[in-house]
Amino acid sequence: MKICAIICEFNPFHNGHRYLLESVLESCSFDGILCVMSGHFTQRGDRAIVDKFTRAKHTVYGGADCVAELPAPFAVAPAPVFAAGAVKIISSVPEVCALAFGCEHRLDFKEAARKIDESAEFKAALNRSLKKGESYAKSYSLALRNICEVSADGANDILALEYAKAVLKYRPELELMPVERMGAGHNDAELGGTYASASAIRSHLDDDGVRACVPGYVIDDIKRDAAAEGRADAILSYAAAAADAGDISAVYGGGEGLANKIKGLCGLSAAEIIAECTSRRYPSSRIRRVLTQVALKLTAEDTNRWLDCAGYIKPLAVKRDRADEMLKALARSHLPVVITGGDAAALTGENAGLYAASAFADRVWGICAGREIYDHTIIKV
Prior knowledge:
Elements: E1 3-8, H1 15-26, E2 32-38, H2 52-61, E3 66-70, H3 72-75, H4 79-91, E4 96-103, H5 109-118, H6 120-131, H7 136-148, H8 155-170, E5 175-180, H9 198-203, H10 219-222, H11 228-242, H12 245-249, H13 258-263, H14 270-277, H15 284-295, H16 300-309, E6 314-318, H17 323-331, H18 341-345, H19 349-369, E7 379-380
Parallel strand pairs: 1-2, 1-4, 2-3, 4-5, 6-7
Antiparallel strand pairs: 3-6
């Protein structure tokens, strides 16, 4: 059995995501698609607009055969950790032979990743740009262009390079299948036509134009928990007020004086803290991610340790007529598969700690949404 993996957030699932899945299906090269998807919080530090089981269901409707969860500590980490955590999961499944992903440009991502890993000059150029006050994304793109002679200035290109670096570490033989994005860019804020970014869709839920940008089975679900945003803001504000500067410095991206600046703004709403801290050097996504990590009690030290020595596979949804073969494929991983409460209780050591951190993130999301998330299940579509 040959499985193609996709690492995703699908927050929410939209026509561009469906195009990615259809591209894999139309290649006729694979017997199944396994998606590894962020759970209730995303790499930008956002509360997912729809619960993880519903988003997984949408993904199966869109063409996936199985959707597994990326544990929360990796899902809300910077791009290198996000990518490594997800690639570690997919590479543990022997039947996975390829990784597909969206990108702005079609590059030889493995070759570019090798250049990055082998170049001390790249790291020096990256750090020089950061010290000048440029954002990480811009610094990364400049170093790629000037040192490695690689043009990759889109958010998806940069994340794809992190996927490639992780593939070289965990399963170098995995095939990479880049698929050029359709329509709007990753952070485009406006709706337009049938392809819009997830950011634009989340910002325009009350706009009739949203219906053209998502499959029909998505539209009603994405409006269900819209009222949770205010509660999420309150939780982040409280977390910033309750934490001390050391707690904030302990999360990814919380150093470099940012912790003291955030503490000096306690009393403001999370949205106001993010606005006050955002600069050329510190994009709003970094500030939001810092606040979310603080609220979820996720330190960089813990996450690095879990990345090194922990992992499990948590299936969220599976296509009903492919359930047996897909779950058997997952069972051949060296990582434990967690579906039932008994599976979760059987986890030990660092695996148990990683699962508990994700379960806590589920509870926080449930508080925002005003409903309980029952984790010990799998949706068959």
